[in-house]
């Protein structure tokens, strides 16, 4: 046999197999991020952050539990808002999921409600329902309904067709759904709902930042006023809550938690129809528009912040955050996977992931702000670490469910030949889902002076200029819908999402 | 029996929101917002005793939320900052500023600088501050944003964005101090009362950060009551509330704000704040 | 050889396949009432395509037992079998049946399960059953439909030969006509009237089973020929350059 008959050795990352294709895809993504990097303001100004950082670390190391005001009520309310908010999201989202594939209107509506961050929904409902559980539940339930509708629809679409095909002819739509579709999707639907509940817990804490008395209420104040031992104690409470989630959220305990939680949610506000109507019919609309004053409307538009730079900053930060999250996830997931290291290292790895994904981005961002000075860099790092850790956690869980075909490979071989090829496609798919979330989260990092759209929305809520805020929310939602459509197009297609939580 | 008691308690909890004749107030102190409910419930008890109606404290996080609660009649009395008080009185016609802290008639803002800037205290802001980095406090704070912004424009005839290389909003006075102390921002604007308290408690390293300029005085925090309070709680109710506030002399209660005493106030005192806010586009 | 009286289906030069892809071109076949047909052929030859075409033509008279069973793992054995008659009840009854089994169907299904050795397993989710138990559940679901014609795609692939005979016996008892795809050549000769043999997209055998021998049937399977295997190995292996780096993608 001569050398000419041998197949040609492939070049760098050449070929049509999934591995090299995804590698090329990833490198393109990273190259794109590097290309736009010069546009971002990434200057580092550091002088002496250590005094403040030292106090923060000390606070985390020696938390002061006694400083917390009614910790059990705050914990209970956090859980109960997340639980009822998620439940309401399921109740609203499930019927929409059934219409999702058929109705463009439903799809657009869901994309719209998903696009607005929970905090902004809370700020909107705050105007009508005041600081009450109703505001908190609506702020969670409405965006979650949009998310559930989309994900449930995708899960149902991917259920195996065989049982449905095996049915005798003439079976009604409802009976077919109840017997040959729903039971097949049930496990995935339940798993996704559980995952969303964890997201709900984080969001519930975050709602404290606008004043609802969850854990975040005291956390934000303590942190803002530099009472670090108290902030540390609250953070530890939250880490423990997240780390012990698999135990206390057992299926049998959920009804008990629901009933118990319902008592914590009260007192319910008396909903004032007049307020609601005033808000919807007047506050949200530019006054000149309502008066039919077209010249005034032009002035109104002139008072709206410059959209160009705001959209530019938002997209830039979202792209950098997404690529950063990918790199962080790739680096961190093996730390928490059962296939690598020893029990102690895995415990540390899991702890690190809980720490990174449960610490609100705003707190992470503040630490980096102290370390690196004001620029886009702290916001980027905070987004990348937080979301990267979340993806890493899901990737590690995915890997733990896999059984290597060839036991006894060295760790590097296990990573490169057994696990990464199977984990990476879904990791990348998850990243594209997460891009939407990252775009939403750029909004709440306005504190760093990065003038994203969210920065201006927050500003206008603070100035009580709801019409401008509403207009900017519409722009944000439009942007989000566009990015979502784009990421759906770019996302590697043939990837089957076995784990529903990878969404 | 225990069962019935629990149900009754739960029922009370649920119906609480509907009770109409409770007088509600809110307050956000300019520093130390820990244990708000515990501290202000004592103020509520004091007012209850003086006013002969049920009084409840509603904890609120931000001035924006406080204004909204006031506008929506979820609270009838509020301890506002200068700007939020103006916002609230514009949204609820007929509402009145009735009292302010003894310290609030002549409030001021300190401009602070990190030692690396080499700046020293003086009678006006030095030209050297141009092109340094600068942070305000919260965006709607009178002492952390509105007045420093106004005096910066007066001094340099330019918006802060143009004067400084970078402008941030730390979100809070304490945080402004931390950020300037750490050198993250070279300059900052901070509520004088918060600064003095931090220096007194040794929470700030004065070798690293110091005051370089103090603004002229302006009116700030005040109590504002809704115009329809008399109608709902009886004639002369607003005056009774004012009396009760002015007579408050227990340090334990006053420390919550923290003020040494309350003195009378009226809407007209806040006209300058309103003018500045309008000029800056924070009010329309 | 006398032709059975009545024709149920005739395929006369029809192209069978999925969408645009033709798997079995120009098929000519006839299925008569009362006939029991064994369908043989190597995997991927087109047996399932042929059965699907028969099912489509026969419509409501067919009890269908698909390949890989098409069971719902999350539902109990009872509910999976009940699905055979899902169309005969209202949606509300079907819903209630999930909450608590209806009295009538429960009795009927219990009888069937007794016959198939599933009586103890009626409440167990199918996901927890062994391969053979699932196979019997799938057959029970087809039997429960109580139709005239049984179409089965390898319904006895994962049970032992004795059980296979017993199951085929049950199917024969309850259906006048049947077409069953299978791999056991001996069973094809002993339990069926007729054999259809498919290879490479063509019907190569269509004959009464008593005229055929095992050797005739072996001709359907290329790997069964002792010479063919060595011939294939002797051919020089020349994979195209693109296929090599892709091998992982096929796993």
On the 0 to 100 scale, the average pLDDT of chain A is: 85
Instruction: Please tally the helical runs of chain A, counting DSSP H or I stretches of 4 or more residues.
Output: 22
Uncertain regions of chain A: pLDDT < 50 for 5+ in a row?
496-503
Number of strands of chain C: 8
- The rounded Rg of chain C comes to 20 Å
Residue share in β-strands of chain C:
15-25%
Structural features, described:
The complex is a heterotrimer of chains A (503), B (284) and C (251). In chain A, 73% of the residues lie in helices and 0% in strands. By secondary structure, chain A is mainly α. Chain A has 2 domains: 259 residues, MetI-like (MetI-like fold), CATH 1.10.3720; 210 residues, MetI-like (MetI-like fold, Orthogonal Bundle). The N and C termini of chain A lie far apart (51 Å). The longest helix of chain B is centred in the first third of the chain and has 16 residues. In chain B, helix 3 runs parallel beside helix 4. With 284 residues, chain B is α/β, with parallel strands linked by helices. Chain C has 251 residues and is α/β, with parallel strands linked by helices. In chain C, the strands form 2 sheets. In chain C, strands 4-5-6-3-7-8 form a 6-stranded mixed sheet, with helices on both faces. In chain C, strands 1-2 form a two-stranded antiparallel sheet. Classes of the chains: A mainly alpha (503), B alpha/beta (284), C alpha/beta (251). Chains A and B meet through helix 5, helix 9 and helix 21 of A and helix 1, helix 2, helix 3, strand 7 and helix 7 of B.
Structural features:
heterotrimer, A: about 500 residues, mainly alpha, MetI-like fold, 2 domains, disordered C terminus, C: about 250 residues, alpha/beta, Rossmann fold, six-stranded mixed β-sheet, two-stranded antiparallel ribbon, 9 helices, 8 strands
